[in-house]
Each structure stands twice: as structure tokens, then as C-alpha cells.
Design brief:
By secondary structure, this protein is mostly helical. It is 46% helix and 8% strand.
């Protein structure tokens, strides 16, 4: 029986560092392009940004594919941190909602007001 190989932690660390660096470089590239291409205004709430606040302006990928970065910027829109978080939350909520609506037994079974009339009559003061 062959003993299991120990993972090469140095090799794994290098791989993780390389992937993180590639991601950072890619993001820096399309963000810089988008900031040159578009006015520094959130595409949703209309908030304007200055050199002091531009760090709060993010690049949102309309098709949610961070590798789709056409040079004309057609897949990007600038959103403030709050609107960007909201956009991604809406996507997650929509996906969760579609799963819930697909199941046959997704209707509520609890009826919180079923006994309300009886409770009100019992607690009435004469």
C-alpha cells in the first residue's frame, strides 16, 4: 500500500498568490479603463464622486462575468458600493425566490391570525 502524498504547501501557496495577483491585475485594468471612460457618477443613485471619494465607486459587470471585459466597456457600469451590493443582493434574492417558487410545497401552512377572533372575544372587557 502506497502512503498518501503530503500536499506541497509551498507550491499551493505560490498558486494561490499567483491567482490572487492575476485577479488584482485584471480588476485594476478594467477599473482604470472604466474610470477613464465614464463620468464618476453612480449609474443607479446618481451620486457624484471626486478624487477623494472615487474609491467608493465600483465597476459592475452587467452580465456578472468578471472575465468579460470588452475594450468598449459595454459590459460595465459604475456603481457606488451600496448600489453594487444591492444589485448583487437582488440577483441572489431572485435566484432564491425562483427555487422557492419551483417547489410544489412552497405555500405557507402557518395561519397566524386563524384564532384572532376568539382571542379578541376572550380578552374583551365587559
Amino acid at each position: 500500500m502506497v502512503p498518501p502524498r503530503k500536499p506541497d504547501s509551498e507550491k499551493l501557496d505560490r498558486l494561490v498568490a499567483d491567482v490572487q495577483q492575476a485577479r488584482t491585475d485584471r480588476e485594476r485594468g478594467y477599473r482604470a479603463q472604466a474610470l477613464k471612460m465614464y463620468p464618476w457618477v453612480c449609474g443607479r443613485c446618481g451620486r457624484e464622486f471626486t478624487n477623494a471619494t472615487v474609491r467608493e465607486l465600483t465597476v459592475h459587470h452587467r452580465d456578472h462575468n468578471h472575465d468579460n471585459n470588452p475594450p468598449d466597456g459595454s459590459n460595465w457600469e459604475l456603481l457606488c458600493l451600496y448600489c453594487h451590493d444591492n444589485e448583487h443582493s437582488r440577483l441572489v434574492d431572485a435566484a432564491a425566490g425562483s427555487v422557492a417558487h419551483d417547489s410544489a410545497d412552497s405555500s405557507a401552512t402557518h395561519k397566524p391570525f386563524a384564532e384572532l377572533e376568539a382571542l379578541l372575544k376572550r380578552n374583551e372587557r365587559p
